[in-house]
Amino acid sequence: MNERPFLDKSNKPTEQTLQAALGSVHTHYKKIISLTGSYLQEWTFTKSSGWMLKLHDRRKALLYLIPLYGGFKISLTIRENERNAFLCDDELSTMHDKISSSKKYPGGFALQFEIENKREFEPLELVIRKLIAIRA
Predict the structure, then answer these.
(1) In this predicted model, what pLDDT tens digit does every residue of 5-53 receive, in sequence order?
(2) 3-class SS of residue 78
(3) In the chain, how many domains are there?
(4) d(CA 101, CA 52)
(5) Domain for residue 119, yes or no?
(6) What is the rounded average pLDDT for all residues in the chain?
(7) In a domain, 5, yes or no
(8) Which CATH number characterizes residue 20's domain?
(9) Integer Cα distance of 6 and 14 in angstroms
């Protein structure tokens, strides 16, 4: 996967710098922002990860988006009931191996997705839509 463009605390992402860094996948970034419209957006910085966008509902994070040159990572944690629902969902059959092998932490099961093109984005979009529906 590509390097992270926003590792300097003084270089907080803007719409222009994000578009330049993400390149062609910027449209997929915008789609995630559109899908998660009711969630709060908060840019946070850590020394190990740099700037990342946290999308949350004040109680729990829905996902973290980490910008990369030419792509981005999505990191999210699903609860056990959400994991079980996803594993029973035929529309998510291409994701079942990834979901069933996710590592369990106290907060749930951790999933990471690396997005560099439309083919990688489409299953993630479906996961996000279904996760929002479950949590609604």
Answers:
(1) 999 999 999 999 999 999 999 999 999 999 998 899 999 999 988 999 9
(2) strand
(3) 1
(4) 25
(5) yes
(6) 94
(7) no
(8) 3.90.1150
(9) 10
What radius of gyration, in Å, describes the C-alpha atoms of the chain?
15
* Residue 46 belongs to some domain of the structure: yes
Domain for residue 10, yes or no? Answer: no
Distance separating alpha carbons of residues 19 and 116, to the nearest angstrom: 14
d(CA 31, CA 78): 21
- Its domain, for residue 48, covers 15-135
pTM for this prediction? 0.92
* pLDDT, tens only, 116-135: 999 999 999 999 999 999 99
Distance CA 23, CA 83 (A): 32
Using CA atoms, how far apart are residues 100 and 8, in angstroms rounded to an integer? 35
Q: In what order do the strands lie in the sheet with 50-56?
A: 40-46, 50-56, 61-68, 71-78, 108-115, 103-105
CA pair distance 10, 98, nearest whole angstrom: 35
